[in-house]
Structure formats: C-alpha cells, structure tokens
C-alpha cells in the first residue's frame, strides 16, 4: 500500500507566528564602505539551517522587562513605528493579542538580549548618565554569563538592573518585518533592526547556532550569493539590498520604512516585496552555482 501523500500547505494546521527580533550590526569597512556582521547558521538548526543570516531569535518571557527599565523610552511611539498591532491578512501572529506598547517592549528587549547572547555585544546605556555602557565593563563579563542568560538561569532584566543599565532602544533603526507563511511547523513574525556597532565593542565567541561568522559589505554578500558561495533567504537578501540603496549612513534613512509593514510570502505565489524580481534572478543564479546547501525553509 502506498504511503499517504503529505497534506497540502493550506490543509495543515495554522501554527501561530511567534514574534522574533534580528539585528543587523553595521560598522565602517575598508575605504569607508559599510560592513555588516553575519553568521552562517549550523546545519543542525531546526529552522533556516545553512543560511547566512543576522543574529537574532524569538521573543521569550525574559523579554517582558519591568517598566523602570524603559524609563525615557516611549514604547507607545515604538509600537507605532513597528506597525503594531497591524499585520498582513491571515498572518495569525501572536503580537496582535498585545497592547502595541507592550509588544514593542518585548520586541526591542529581544533584539538587545539575543544580540548579547549570540555575540557578546550589549546595546545598553547607563541608567544615571544616559551614556553608552563602558565597553570595558562588557568585556569583563564572564563568558558563562551569556550562557546563563541563554539558559534562563540569569534573568536578562535583572542583569541590566543590577548593573545599572537600560536597553539602548534609541540606537535601533527599524528596517523591516517579515512573517513566515503558513504550511510549516515553525512560523516567526520577525522584526529587523539596524544599529551601528557600539564603539569599543566587537562580536566575540558565537553561540552554538553559528557555524561561522564575519564582516562583509552588503554588496559583497549579494555577489557571493549569486556566485553560490552563501545562502541568503529572501528576508536577509532584502535587508542587504536595501542597505546598498541606503549608503553609508543608516541613520540618514531612519524613517524610510516606518511604520513597518509586514511581508508574508505565500508558497506557490509570486513574492510581493520591493526588488522581488531581482531576488528571484539572484536565487536562480545561486541554485545554478550553489557551493553551499540551500535552507529547506526557503519557500521561493
């Protein structure tokens, strides 16, 4: 007897889209050209294995920070800038259930926490002076601290409070919002932010999620994608492509995409996003020359 065919995407259970944050660390490169920091995700990862991407991850309970940590930050305005609570039709995201200010706080906290866990870079300011955290303080943190935060043995909000720090939300530039389509076992509602690498800090030991990491210009990563050397899923490609347009100063275009509008691609249908035709041409070139495995989660 033949095995039953798997259910069509439209017949599979509608899995909620879990909120997530991803951060594009930016620094001046050789000759003044902007470089971005990326990681190649390990082949063992359950989602987007083998993909070259930016640090980030899902929002978790630790990202519901106490109100005192947000003093001086207008979370209601951040909710507007992030386009909350709006989402594409039938997105089935969990952020729509939250007050926009609460949702914004969790998304911002996740961006700061995940970046610290994965790279050791801490986007924070002194609670009393408002100045960026001393990079020597961050460098003095033991490696085990990052691991303990990731394992939820140390509460991230309590860590910031104990150190007299606050999340540096003002450094973040909202860039885009992408929502995983229906049909798979995992869905994410991911907010992408850009930020200049804090002076004196640098990405250190990567988490186990990364097989490799490094700096390159957006244009170089796009060239390497077409040459089959790196695997870029559509959201990552889009961040890089729009940063090529933005030029050297990401802050000059701070409001270019605000409020963010969610993009939810649908398998089997043409993608609807800026430069979509260009991405499909690049994807075709990648598949013809692929030297690395393509993520099975890329639906295009």
Automatic annotation (TrEMBL):
GO terms for molecular function: hydrolase activity, acting on acid anhydrides, in phosphorus-containing anhydrides; metal ion binding. Gene3D superfamilies: Nucleoside Triphosphate Pyrophosphohydrolase. Residues 16-241 form the Nudix hydrolase domain. Keywords: Hydrolase, Magnesium, Manganese, Metal-binding. The keyword Manganese applies. Its cofactor is Mn(2+); Mg(2+). The keyword Ribonucleoprotein does not apply. PANTHER family: ACYL-COENZYME A DIPHOSPHATASE NUDT19 (PTHR12318:SF0), TESTOSTERONE-REGULATED PROTEIN RP2 (PTHR12318). This is NUDIX domain.
């Amino acid at each position: 007897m033949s095995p039953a065919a798997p259910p069509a995407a439209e017949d599979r259970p509608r899995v909620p889209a879990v909120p997530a944050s991803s951060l594009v660390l930016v620094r001046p490169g050789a000759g003044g050209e902007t470089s971005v920091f990326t990681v190649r995700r390990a082949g063992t990862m359950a989602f987007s294995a083998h993909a070259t991407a930016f640090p980030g991850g899902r929002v978790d309970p630790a990202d519901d920070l106490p109100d005192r940590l947000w003093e001086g930050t207008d979370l209601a305005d951040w909710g507007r800038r992030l386009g909350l609570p709006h989402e594409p039709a039938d997105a089935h995201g969990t952020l729509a259930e939250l007050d926009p200010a609460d949702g914004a706080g969790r998304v911002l906290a996740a961006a700061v926490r995940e970046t610290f866990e994965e790279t050791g870079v801490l986007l924070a300011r002194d609670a009393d002076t408002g100045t960026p955290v001393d990079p020597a303080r961050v460098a003095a943190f033991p490696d085990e601290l990052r691991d303990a935060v990731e394992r939820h043995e140390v509460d991230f909000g309590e860590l910031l409070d104990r150190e007299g720090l606050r999340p540096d939300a003002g450094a973040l530039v909202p860039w885009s919002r992408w929502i995983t389509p229906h049909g798979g076992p995992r869905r994410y509602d991911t907010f992408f932010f850009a930020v200049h690498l804090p002076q004196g800090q640098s990405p250190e030991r990567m988490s186990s999620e990364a097989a490799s990491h490094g700096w390159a210009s957006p244009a170089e990563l796009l060239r390497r994608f077409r040459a089959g050397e790196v695997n870029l899923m559509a959201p990552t490609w889009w961040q890089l492509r729009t940063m090529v347009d933005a030029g050297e100063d990401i802050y000059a275009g701070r409001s270019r995409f605000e409020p963010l509008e969610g993009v939810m691609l649908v398998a089997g249908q043409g993608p609807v996003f800026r430069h979509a035709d260009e991405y499909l041409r690049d994807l075709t070139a990648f598949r013809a020359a692929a030297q690395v495995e393509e993520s099975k989660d890329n639906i295009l």
